[in-house]
Design goal:
Blueprint (H helix, E strand, L loop, with lengths): L19 H13 L25 E3 L4 E2 L30 E4 L5 E3 L4 E8 L6 E7 L1 H4 L4 E9 L10 E2 L4 E4 L17 E9 L15 E3 L22 E3 L2 E2 L5 E2 L12 E2 L1
Parallel strand pairs: 1-12
Antiparallel strand pairs: 2-15, 3-10, 4-9, 5-6, 5-8, 6-7, 7-10, 10-11, 13-14
The chain binds zinc ion (ZN).
Zinc ion binds next to loops.
């Protein structure tokens, strides 16, 4: 096997394999607004493309509880409704996971940490909140920078403010989803993105973190010894996920990383 093969899982969906005319056609159609464009993240901000390597990981919730599941997984080529993502962003692969939610559902901090940014982007971004979790917050060997998107209202928390795992930090919505792929009524859901970044906090906190690697948010639940560079070699793709009940109680108690939506007892 060639040395470079390890990091080329997404090659089959890469744009470079498409004929030039197809790329031009895709661009023109996206510009007209008539297609399921994935190419805009709001205003004049440059579009960022990342390598997305599907992991096959799935959340395993406590059997005692019912939780809102993932509707479109990390690395999926499909949206929640089985429609196909266009290949002009992240190679057509999902750069996070989606949870379908009614508007106004409380969104929870997945770990303790602090707010580092909030704002409102355009199509496919909407109102967002960025939280940062130091290694001590998660017991993971990296700094985790997590983005929550499509919120219904601007979060009250401001950059620099601390958060606790399981704390309500936002309200889910459908901002940035109305029109295009999701139709005129939009798609109410939470999109979660994870950037794995250097453990040491830089003096200037930027989002996305310049050194960050876009990664499967389920990595947050993997033990510190998991080899995140060779995730497909893990013996079990089901990742045990700690949850938060409606009263704020974390199950199992003491867990540092939790599902971003309340779960209910069966
Ligand atoms: Zn998404």
């Amino acid at each position: 096997m060639a040395p470079a093969a390890k990091r080329t899982i997404t090659d089959e969906s890469c744009m470079k394999n498409l004929p030039a005319f197809a790329l031009l056609a895709a661009f023109l159609l996206a510009s007209t607004g008539y297609t399921q464009a994935q190419s805009r993240n709001g205003g004049s901000a440059p579009r960022l493309d990342y390598e997305v390597r599907p992991t096959g990981l799935t959340p395993a919730f406590p059997t005692s509880h019912v939780c809102a599941p993932i509707a479109s997984a990390w690395g999926s080529q499909e949206r929640f409704d089985n429609s196909t993502r266009l290949q002009n962003r992240n190679g057509g692969l999902h750069g996070g996971f989606d949870i379908s939610l009614q508007e106004g559902t409380p969104i929870l901090a997945m770990a303790s940490g602090k707010v580092i940014a909030k704002g409102e982007g355009g199509m496919l971004e909407g109102i967002y909140l960025w939280l940062q979790h130091a290694p001590a917050d998660t017991s993971l060997p990296y700094r985790a920078v997590v983005k929550y998107q499509h919120l219904s209202t601007m979060p009250r928390l401001n950059p620099g403010e601390p958060v606790n795992a399981g704390q309500i930090v936002a309200s889910s919505g459908l901002t940035g989803t109305v029109g295009r792929a999701f139709g005129p009524s939009g798609y109410p859901h939470l999109h979660v993105s994870l950037f794995v970044a250097a453990a040491t906090e830089p003096a200037n906190l930027k989002v996305p973190p310049p050194d960050g690697k876009l990664s499967d948010p389920l990595l947050l639940f993997l033990p510190a010894h998991a080899d995140v560079e060779n995730i497909s070699t893990l013996p079990d793709p089901a990742v045990r996920v700690a949850i938060v009940e409606g009263d704020g109680r974390i199950e199992p108690a003491g867990s540092k990383v939790v599902w971003p939506v309340h779960c209910v007892t069966r």
